[in-house]
Design brief:
Blueprint (H helix, E strand, L loop, with lengths): L1 H13 L3 H9 L7 H36 L5 H41 L1 H21 L2 H43 L10 H35 L5 H17 L1 H8 L1
Helix pairs in contact: 1-5, 1-6, 2-4, 2-6, 2-7, 3-4, 3-6, 4-7, 5-7, 6-7, 6-8, 7-8, 7-9
């Protein structure tokens, strides 16, 4: 009986089914809270968009006066400023569509990784082998406590992913909502606040891909460690579970480092 409980703990902890839950809540384009989430963001965005259009004129005049004061107002400079003006108007008008495109790039790639049948089958096979190997090598009393520890760590991993998923959604939400303010200034080229803000939105969207890689690769690594019956392999699997939780929480920061 004790080993049956232990085995259930291990199988639950190593199951690939939690990847479906990650996919359900991670994706903002098709996720479970898509409508309500974007409805709230759209309300704030629509209000701030009016402010953004007013700020465009302010930043344009500021850039014009700055270049005039430097006696550097050439046709080329004026042309760049006009390009910045057009870009600012276009971006503020179409931020939701731009964000949606960013999300599709990241979430389509993440969906492919999470739903890859070959990887999933390999993972399930590895899990079955791992549990059987662990069963043969571990005495019953020790097995129970190991399985319980593993199960608790797995639940911590799930909480870490939930935390990271909600953090990402909120991060994208507020960035989209206030985008008209930052994106009103597109007059300094790649260093302009508007360009930097767009990069930050893309970075937040990219977190879905990073989290998919962490979730899938982490599950396979844990199974691989447990298949190894050498001394210390179980504790390597335990350490891997803890590392997965830390990597999930740090995924937002890692995405911003890429850009």
């Amino acid at each position: 009986i004790m080993f049956g409980i232990s085995k259930s703990f291990m199988e639950s902890s190593l199951s690939m089914k939690y990847l479906d839950d990650i996919q359900k809540w991670l994706f903002l384009n098709t996720g479970a809270y898509k409508e309500g989430f974007w409805g709230a963001i759209q309300s704030a965005y629509s209000f701030i968009q009016v402010i953004g259009f007013a700020l465009i004129a302010t930043f344009f005049l500021k850039a014009l006066l700055t270049e005039s004061a430097k006696e550097n107002l050439t046709i080329e400079t004026l042309g760049k400023m006009m390009i910045g003006l057009v870009l600012a108007l276009a971006v503020i008008t179409h931020i939701p569509e731009i964000t949606n495109a960013f999300l599709k790039i990241s979430e389509n790639a993440a969906g492919y990784i999470l739903s890859d049948e070959t990887l999933t089958k390999d993972g399930e096979s590895a899990i079955t082998t791992a549990v059987e190997a662990w069963k043969k090598e571990t005495p019953n009393p020790i097995a129970f406590f190991q399985a319980l520890l593993f199960y608790v760590l797995h639940q911590i991993c799930i909480i870490a992913f939930d935390f990271a998923i909600i953090s990402r959604a909120l991060d994208i939400g507020w960035r989209v909502a206030v985008a008209p303010i930052s994106c009103a200034d597109m007059f300094e080229g790649a260093n302009s606040p508007g360009v930097k803000h767009l990069k930050s939105i893309f970075g937040s969207a990219l977190v879905a891909l990073i989290m998919a890689i962490i979730a899938k690769a982490g599950a396979l690594l844990v199974g691989g460690f447990l298949q190894d019956t050498t001394n210390g392999s179980f504790w390597m699997a335990v350490a891997c579970q803890a590392a997965i939780a830390g990597a999930a929480i740090g995924a937002n920061q890692k995405a911003k480092e890429i850009l």
